[in-house]
Design brief:
This protein is an alpha+beta fold and about 110 residues long. The protein contains 3 helices and 6 strands; from the N terminus they run αβββαβαββ. Helices cover about 25% and strands about 40% of the residues. The longest helix has 10 residues, at about 5-15. The protein starts with 6 loop residues before the first helix and ends with a strand. This is Acetyltransferase.
């Protein structure tokens, strides 16, 4: 699985991922994605591009939801596909933020077990 990140994003991933608990999902042939958590903060959810839209992201998300009372994450505002994915899966937009490291607007999103 290839994961690409630009400049400051790569720094964030290399700093956050090592201190997170990461769960990997594979099919019969290969790794298709992973989710990384730091306590109740979702640091990363990545699905290999060739497997997006096959339900793997929802499976990883539901796996984590079954182990947490609440989850928070940040997602770039311009990433409509990801924002809509999280909204469809029960997350709400809590706050609009600006990431000075990447010069990007982002949403703080949250989910709570009911």
């Amino acid at each position: 699985m290839e994961i690409t990140a630009k400049g400051d994003e790569r720094k964030v991933y290399s700093n956050v991922i090592p201190m997170s608990k990461t769960y990997v999902l594979s099919n019969e042939k290969e790794v298709v994605g992973f989710i990384s958590m730091v306590d109740n903060y979702m640091a990363a959810l990545f699905i290999d591009v060739k497997h997006q839209g096959e339900g793997y992201g929802r499976r990883l998300l539901n796996f984590i939801k079954g182990r947490r009372e609440n989850i928070q994450l940040k997602v770039y505002k311009k990433n409509n596909k990801a924002v809509n994915f999280y909204l469809r899966n029960g997350f709400v937009i809590k706050e609009e933020l600006f990431d000075e490291q990447t010069d990007e607007e982002e949403f703080l999103m949250g989910w709570e077990k009911v």
